[in-house]
Amino acid sequence: MWTRSGYHEGNKMAKKEKYLETNLKQFGDPILREKSKNIEHSNDLYETVQKMTKIVKDLNASGLAAPQIGILRRIIVFRFERKTHVLINPEITWKSEDMIEGPEGCLSLSGIWTMVNRFSKIVVQGRNLDGDLIKLELEGENARIIQHEIDHLDGITIYNRVPKEYRKEILYKLGKIG
Fold this sequence. Notes:
This protein is of the alpha+beta class. Helix content is about 30%, strand content about 30%.
């Protein structure tokens, strides 16, 4: 059952714990509050995307933003229908007026699931690894995933998206307050 700011207690896989301990930035790390910079194509870009793609696949995650691995560059890796995609310097160019509330979790807030309002439809554009311009018209869960990952690029987490009255509960569940 979903709660407004729930705690998801599932079986923790050893692989996920390894990533959480060594690679993924967790809530409270200052890098998660910083705005990422645009990136140019380089060898570092390919290495970063390869690392991010491996994490997304290994953890069966919906998406990952570069700041979550400590890199302040505008790169997201995400999965739609079991296929992994990359957007470099993504930008939301259009948002619907209507919003929809839905459950979200985050690799940087391990174990926390909370309800978040998002635009129901968006248009996003960015570049792929070949430098080609990509434009996606998205709705529903796919729009939610992209908005979540772009938030990370702007220093925003789901914690910032929930009403203030629920933030204390999240802090408590993360062990940040007693």
